[in-house]
Amino acid sequence: MIPTTLGAVAGITGGRLHGCSTAEADEIVVDGPVVTDSREAGPGSLYVARIGESADGHDFVLGAAQRGAVAALTTREVDGLPCVVVDDEQAGFVALARHLVDSRPDLTVIGITGSSGKTSTKDLLGSVLSADGETVAPVGSYNSEVGVPLTVCRITPTTRHLVVEMGARGIGHVDYLTRIAPPRIGIVLNVGHAHVGEFGSVDAIAQAKGELPASLPADGVAVLNADDPLVAAMAERTQAQVVLVGESEAAHVRATDVTLDELGAPSFTVDAPFGSARVQLALVGRHHVGNALAVIAAAQAAGTTLEQIVPALAQARPVSRWRMEVTRRDDGVVVVNDAYNANPDSMSAALRSVAGMATTGRRWAVLGAMLELGDDSAQLHAGVGREAAELGFDEILVVGESAAPIATGAGDNGSGDVNVRVVPDAAAAEELLVAELATPDLVLFKSSRDAGLRWLGERIVTREARP
């Protein structure tokens, strides 16, 4: 964090001091990580004591102090650590984050939103921009009203680029996040079915995602997916310069001649007003072509040249866990763990990626439930099953009752070449896989977070195939 005295924190947040005098507060400097988890505190930290559904952060103030925190942001007086007491800890947290951004007018802020691919894209963009200068990007999927200020508070006096991932579960959410960290460059990747149960319709999702380009200044840049009509239409919602990216002829930054290597890592030729080059990615999955195009356009808008961008993309590796993690076991079985989260669009992307990987063994799809899909849940799950069967997967293992329509959809395909089974949970799936996986099978794990498949994927990595 940019070093800030506790007295200044009180002024920024409108809070009052407890546990120290005004003079003492002016000597206490917050220059370590700002955290909402006391276990992550360190020397110089500010601990934000949030009150959640199952825990009250005020109960952990002393734990933060023991780990080196110098102060806490609280909504009531707590002894044992100097505190800034505010009426609303979220409002105070946001005020602090916005102050830090405003204190760095030369900082380039880049916002990213979309129904899928946000985390992979911010990881790619963070890697590319780091070659140009000090860059802060979110840890994991810090894309909420808590994750965004946590990310902002990591900037230092020498940070050049700030990448902010912006998620949404309703209208107005992205707009709120843009007011915490106002972007000059905004990327909208796609509009899909993620959280459609909460939004009510895909059109409502598009309205929410469009809040990012709508927030951009006139001298900003909106990077929009030319291949997604709902995203391309957002050009009407922004005063910023619009850069369309994709594979269609309408794209300003366009990919052609896309190929995949034996593990499914894509390469392509990028053609843009600022140059043309052959791009090789180390990430697995054809869907990363669109992500990479968005990164190229945003990085160029941030002042990076194509000559810098292309080698940085080639060197970029997965940063966040459980996103197309490819592991080849010693016995030759290849495990693809993409089980961080799932929606119909990311399911399709994962299935197509694994279908494009070379193997002489069987292709397995181990699939769990997708959440927050509303009344269309059964239909959308069935669509996943049909696609897996159409793509030629040999084994489809459906995990959990909520995911059962996947099996129905796979059966509707009418192909006798696919073996479809349903098991009640991850433990049953593990038992079956240990018994049946054989060299050189290829197995994909994909589900929403609570199905336990990400951990199953990790355990299967350590197993040995049967003789």
Q: How does this structure look, described?
A:
With 467 residues, this protein is α/β, with parallel strands linked by helices. It contains 18 helices and 22 strands. Helix 17 packs parallel to helix 18 (453-461). 52% of the residues are buried. The model has no long low-confidence stretch (mean pLDDT 92).
Strands, helices and their partners?
Layout: E1 4-5, H1 6-13, E2 16-18, H2 22-25, E3 29-30, E4 34-35, E5 46-48, H3 61-66, E6 71-74, E7 83-85, H4 89-102, E8 108-113, H5 118-130, E9 135-136, H6 147-152, E10 161-165, H7 173-180, E11 185-188, H8 196-199, H9 202-209, H10 211-215, E12 221-225, H11 229-232, E13 241-246, E14 253-260, E15 266-272, E16 275-280, H12 288-301, H13 306-315, E17 325-328, E18 334-337, H14 344-355, E19 363-367, H15 377-390, E20 395-399, H16 405-412, E21 419-423, H17 426-436, E22 442-446, H18 453-461
Parallel strand pairs: 4-5, 5-6, 6-7, 8-10, 8-11, 9-10, 11-12, 12-13, 13-14, 18-22, 19-20, 19-22, 20-21
Antiparallel strand pairs: 1-3, 2-7, 14-15, 15-16, 17-18
Helix pairs in contact: 5-12, 5-13, 12-13, 14-15, 15-16, 17-18
